[in-house]
Amino acid sequence: MVTRDSAWPGGVPCWVDLGVDDLDRARAFYGELLGWEAPPGSPETGGYSICLKNGRAVAGIGPKQGPPDVPPAWTTYLSVADADETARKISAAGGKLLVEPGDVMDAGRLAIAADPGGAVFGIWQSRAHTGIGLANEPGALCWNENMSRDYEANLAFYRSVFGYDYDDMSANGFRYSVFKVDGNPAGGIGELGADFPADIPPHWMAYFAVADTDAAVAKVTELGGGVLRTPWDTPYGRMAILGDSQGAVFAVIAMPAGG
Q1: Tell me, what CATH number does 166's domain have?
Q2: Sorted alphabetically, which PANTHER family does this protein's record hold (predicted)?
Q3: Within this chain, do residues 186 and 236 fall inside the same structural domain, yes or no?
Q4: pLDDT digits (tens, 9 = 90+) for 75-97
Q5: Over 90: is that where the pLDDT of 44 sits?
C-alpha cells in the first residue's frame, strides 16, 4: 500500500478520471465493484466526483468532454511542476495539445495531449489537489501503461518530455518497457503489435488492484459491464481487461503478496 498527501514527482501517473454520460450510473458501478465512496461534486464542476477509498482520493468521475460521439473513457494524468512549460515540450517533441493548459479553480492546472502514437493523456500541476492519495491497494490504482503502434517514437517522446529512463522487458515478440522516475518503476510503455486486434486504439490503460480477479470479473458482468479479455496469470498477478456499464475500458489485477 502507498499513501501520499503531497505532489507526486514529475512524470509519475498521479491521477485518473473517467468521463461518462451518466455520472450516477458510473458512481454506482465503481462503488459496487471497487468499494469507492463517490459523493456528487458541486454544480460548478459539473458534478465531478472525487472518489474515495478508506477516506483517501483514488480517482475522479465527471461529465464526458468533447463531441457527443466521443466514447466514455479513463484518462491518465502525469504529474508536472509547470503545465505550461510541459505543454511546450509536448509540442516540440511531436505531441499534439488537445486542451491548452488551464486552471481548475484552486485544485491545479491541467492540459490534455496526444502522444505521437495517438494515445491521449493529461498533465497535472497540483495545487490544492495533489492527486491520488492511495495506491497499490485493492480498490485503488496500481499501474498505468501506454500502448500504441509507434513504440519507438513513444519511447523517445516520453523521454524527451518527462525525462524517463527505461527497463526493457520485451520478450517473445512483444515489445514493452517500464519507465522509471528517480530510479523507481512508474508505469509501462508497450507496442500494439500484430497479435492485437486492429480495432484497438492507442491508449493509456489504468489498472486497479482487486483482491480476486475472477470475482471482480463476475461482479462486472453482474453490474452490466463486459469482459474484453478473460483473466490470465502473469508473474505480476492475475489480470483481466474489462468494460464498465457505459463502455469505458479499464483493467484489474490481483497483485501477489508484497505488491
Answers
A1: 3.10.180.10
A2: CONSERVED PROTEIN, GLYOXALASE-RELATED
A3: yes
A4: 999 999 999 999 999 999 999 99
A5: no
| pLDDT (tens digit per residue) in 125-144 | 999 999 999 999 999 999 99
Q: How many CB atoms lie within 10 A of CB 35?
A: 16
Quote the CA–CA distance of 151 and 153 in Å, as a whole number: 6
pTM of the predicted model, to two decimals? 0.96
Q: How far apart are CA 171 and CA 229, in angstroms?
A: 20
Q: How far apart are CA 73 and CA 205, in angstroms?
A: 10
Which of 94, 126, 158 marks a domain boundary? 126
* Of 182, 194, 111, 122, residue with least CA distance to 151: 194
In a shared domain, residues 93 and 154 = no
Give 208-232 pLDDT, tens digit per residue. Answer: 999 999 999 999 999 999 999 999 9
C-alpha angle 81-83-86 in degrees, rounded to nearest 5: 90
